[in-house]
Each structure stands twice: as C-alpha cells, then as structure tokens.
Amino acid sequence: MSDYFEVRLSGSGGQGMMLAGTFLAEAAGIYDDKNIVLCKSYGPEARGGACRSEVIISAKPIVYPEVQEPDLVLAMTQEACNKYYKDLKPGGIMIVDPEHVQEIPEANIEIFQVPLTRIAREEVGNEITANVVALGAFAAIVDWVTRDSIRKAILDRTPKGTDDLNKKAFDYGYKYVLNNYKETARKVG
Fold first, then answer.
1. How far apart are CA 37 and CA 6, in angstroms?
2. How do residues 64-85 score in pLDDT, each as one tens digit?
3. Is residue 42 situated within a structural domain?
C-alpha cells in the first residue's frame, strides 16, 4: 500500500475545482495529519476557461511539490478528460461526469462515470454542489483521506446555512459510487 498519492481535479472555471482542491488538501493536512501540497491553475478566462487543482497527499515529507503522474484525475469536462487522462499512472483512476464527458478514453485506467452535475441538480437541488458530490465519490473510491475529514473540511469552509446542502451533496456522491461500483469502490489504491 502506497503512502503517496497525486490527485488532479480538473474542469472549467466556475465548476468549483479550486475549492474542491482546497477541501481535499485541508482534509488530508489538517484533519488526517498528512503532508500535502496544493497547486491551482486557472485559464485566462474567469469562467468557462480550463482550470485544475492538484493535491499531493503523503505520509512522508514531500520532496517534489508538483504532480507528475496522478493516481487519480477528476475530469468535469471533455477538454479536461482529453488533456489529463494521458498523465495518469498505469492502472490509475479517472472520475468523469458523463453529462460533460461523452468520449471515454480507452487506456489502462479505472474509470468511474458518476453523473456529478445531474446528481447536484436533480437530487441535491443545486448544480453548484457538483464539486462536493465529486468529493463524496472520491471518498467512496479511495481511502487516501478519510471520509469524515473530507466532510469536516467542507463544512468548516462553506458559508453558514449551507451545511445541509453540502452534507446532502457529499452523501449522494458517496452513495452513488457505493451503489453502482460495489466491486471496486474502496478497494482501489
């Protein structure tokens, strides 16, 4: 079992990838007491341009603070999927939102198609929570950061009055993966 993981959360501006990266980094670093590096990259546009948030999670000191070969990539758009699946480690994990990613790569990777935007819109009632739904899915797929730590980081950082909405979003993402990927959920990594 490895104690070093590289994660890339990617999509377009406005989808909450920067905030999701912050939640994940704080969950791992503050609540799970791991070493972390968080890097964010925006496209030239404020909304709609390509963006990514990268998190390195390690039980040991991190020597090189840049994601080289991610263990997991979240792709919220087709552009992000096309650009970043090639960087994944062989056997790595990709989470895609099939509402925005129709062309799934054929590669030596584990793919989880999770309707993040649809769940946020139809089940949670607010499409802006798709990033939190994604973190719920992440928590169901791998155990690199504890589920409770991710939930706590989300609730500690989101505005007061949104707790129930964010809990609901996180839980729907988590349950979706457990219900639809029973054989592989929480066994990867």
1. 9
2. 999 999 999 999 999 999 999 9
3. yes
